[in-house]
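haha ok so turns out i had the wrong file open the whole time. this is the CORRECT one, sorry everyone. sequence first:
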Amino acid sequence: MKVVVDIMGADRGPAEIIKGAVEALADSRAVMVLVGDEAFIKAELKGYQYDPARIEIVDAKEAITNDDSPTNAIREKKESSLVKALEKTKNDPEVAGMVSAGSTGAVLTGAILKLGRIKGVARPCLAPLVPTAGDTTFTVVDTGANMDCKPEYLVQFAVMGAHYMRAMCGVENPRVALVSVGVEDKKGNELSKEAFARLKSLPDGVVNFVGNMEARDAMTGDYEVLVCDGFVGNVLIKSVEGAAMTVMKLLKSEIAASFRAKLGALFMKKSLRGLKRKMDYSALGGAALLGVDKAVVKSHGSSKAKTIRASIGQIVKMGERDIVGKIKESIRSTLSAAAEADAPSHE
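then structure:
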C-alpha cells in the first residue's frame, strides 16, 4: 500500500517530516508518497539510505499556513501540498490514507471537501490515542473538529470511536463513556443529557456504553472511548497533555534540588525512564479523522520525526484492518437500528 505524507505547513519544517517518513520505511512494506517541493525533498533524501522504489514524490511548491482561511485555501491554493496530497489520496486506489502536520482547519476542511464523508456520518471527528496510567490507551472523540454538536453527532462519535479502538488497539469491547460533570445519569448540560439518553437506548451490541464519567478519571484506564463535543474534548486533551508535561518538569526540578534526590534518581533511573515512556503521548502518533472516506491522521504541528513515523504506522494499520470499511458498516447498522426503533408499531 501507499501512504501519502504532506511535508509542508508543519511548525518544525519539512525536513523533520521527511525524516519521519524515511524512518517509517522500516516499520512496514508501504510506499511513502511525499508531497511538497520536489527539489527540497530530493536534496533532503540525499542524507538518508533508503530503497528509492519505496518513495514517490509529488511536486507541490505552495503551502497552506495557519493564517490562511481553510475553505478559501483548499479552493484557491490548488498547487499546495495539502490539496495535492488529498487529491492523490482520493484518486489513487493503492493509497491507504494520508498524514499531515499542517493547519488543522485546512486538513479537516480539505478532507471533507476532497475525500467526502462516509454516507450517514453527520460530522467527522478527531480521535487521538492517549496513554493511561497503565499500559493501555484511550481515545477522545471529538477533540476539535466540531465545536458545537447535536446529540446525534455524539452518538456517531461513540460508534466510530468504539470501532476505531477495537480495530486499532485490539480492545474487544471498548468501554464508552460520556464526559460530564458527574457520574450520575442526570448530570450535565442539555447536550450531554440528550446524548446520554440516546446512547443508553442504543440496541445491545452497538456500543458498550457505561454511562457518564468525570474528566479526572480520563487516564485511569477505566474507559477506552471518551465522548464529548470538540470544545470539551480539545480542553480535555490539552489539559491531559499539559498535566503530563508539568509532572515531568516538576520531577526534574525536585531531582535537581538536592544531592540526595539525585542519588535516589540514579537508583530509580530505569523506573523514571519507564514513566517518561508511558506518559509520552507523542509516540502514539496523531489524531485520526474518523468519518471520511479514506484514512486521515492529523499530526500535531510541532511533531518530531518520531510522531510522524507513528502517524504513518496508524495509517498502515487502518489500511490493513480496513477501519474505514468497518466504520461504514457500523454507521449503516446503527442508522438501520435507529430507523427500526423509531418506526411506528402496527400492533
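Residues 151 and 190 are 9 Å apart (CA to CA).
again sry for the mixup
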